[in-house]
């Protein structure tokens, strides 16, 4: 299967053969503090991740203040049980006046800042900040007018596919193309919080690449970094993980967020996974040459004189290489040495 061509996001090449594009999601982990949000951005910069992502909405732009059953999260939800959507989004949203200082801090620290808009006014705000890319959240993948509007900016789009059928994904990508977007990354995603690794179904990554012919990544809500690293081995070119300063600080997303040292590990290990995915080959690599010289072979292990018999006491299979193959031992036992040989000499046919 031919890999799709990489796309470019703010100077970063995102695609096959490139270092995984790691996106650190702040979301509601600012816990209502701009200073904390800026501190999270600093920690992300220290990790080596390339991008930081926000979410641009208010409770009033994403829902309404209503208490009917359809506006309530089921009571037994592990994180947000019993809360209304309005209450949850009121706590989790990033105030719009924070966006400018957050974008500025990210750029000062060498990060690519962008966001998920949830309505046209959010797109307007992000355009005023010259956002270099846009993310479409999983629940918005069916909001085709929003997708077309975002696409009309001409910026690269990263689209999450949590919950979506192949038909819904196809319609979303078509809407993006119709709106004018030419560079897209599709993220495999399980839209549960936290997500069970068993639901990740990472083999969807090559399937999505084959189906849609664009770079595929992973939006990962599982705990830890194992699922994300495995995704890279299966072809994921971008990884998105929520990040917090410390899970013990609490917050709406803290349970499935990485701490800074874990994000650093994700950047390191995902890069290693990318390097490890190479075409199959057999036989020693160049880097194995030194170890190849340590293979066992037959050596003279005691000083011998001409005419001495070859025995198990003076010839053994040891490291390093250089002597006869170890399986020749039965052929040489009982023969005589043709000359005196010092201990530590590789056994060769001319010596017996």
From TrEMBL:
Pfam families: NeuB, SAF. GO terms for molecular function: N-acylneuraminate-9-phosphate synthase activity. It comes from the Bacteria. One of its GO terms (biological process) is carbohydrate biosynthetic process. Residues 297-352 form the AFP-like domain. This is N-acetylneuraminate synthase.
């Amino acid at each position: 299967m031919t890999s799709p061509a990489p796309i470019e996001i703010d100077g970063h090449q995102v695609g096959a053969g490139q270092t995984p594009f790691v996106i650190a999601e702040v979301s509601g982990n600012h816990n209502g503090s701009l200073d904390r949000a800026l501190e999270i951005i600093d920690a992300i910069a220290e990790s080596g991740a390339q991008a930081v992502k926000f979410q641009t909405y208010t409770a009033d732009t994403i829902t309404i203040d209503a208490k009917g059953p359809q506006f309530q999260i089921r009571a037994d939800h592990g994180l947000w049980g019993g809360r209304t959507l309005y209450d949850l989004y009121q706590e989790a949203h990033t105030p719009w006046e924070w966006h400018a200082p957050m974008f500025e801090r990210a750029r000062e620290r060498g990060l690519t800042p962008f966001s998920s808009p949830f309505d046209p006014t959010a797109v307007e705000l992000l355009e005023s900040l010259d956002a270099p890319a846009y993310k479409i959240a999983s629940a918005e993948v069916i909001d085709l007018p929003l997708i077309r509007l975002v696409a009309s900016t001409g910026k690269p789009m990263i689209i999450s596919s949590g919950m979506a059928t192949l038909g819904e994904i196809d319609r979303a990508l078509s809407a993006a193309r119709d709106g004018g977007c030419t560079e897209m990354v599709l993220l495999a995603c399980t839209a549960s919080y936290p997500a069970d690794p068993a639901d990740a179904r990472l083999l969807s990554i090559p399937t999505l690449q084959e189906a849609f012919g664009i770079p595929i990544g992973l939006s990962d809500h599982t705990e830890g970094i194992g699922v994300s690293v495995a995704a890279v081995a299966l072809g994921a070119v971008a990884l998105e993980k929520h990040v917090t300063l410390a899970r013990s600080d609490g917050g709406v997303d803290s349970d499935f967020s990485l701490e800074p040292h874990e994000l650093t590990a994700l950047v390191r290990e995902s890069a290693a996974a990318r390097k490890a995915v190479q075409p199959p080959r057999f036989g020693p690599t160049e880097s194995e040459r030194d170890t190849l010289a340590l293979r066992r072979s037959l050596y003279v292990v005691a000083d011998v004189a001409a005419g001495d018999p070859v025995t198990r006491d003076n010839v053994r299979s040891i490291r390093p290489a250089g002597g006869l193959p170890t399986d020749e031992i039965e052929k040489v036992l009982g023969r005589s040495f043709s000359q005196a040989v010092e201990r530590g000499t590789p056994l060769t046919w001319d010596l017996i």
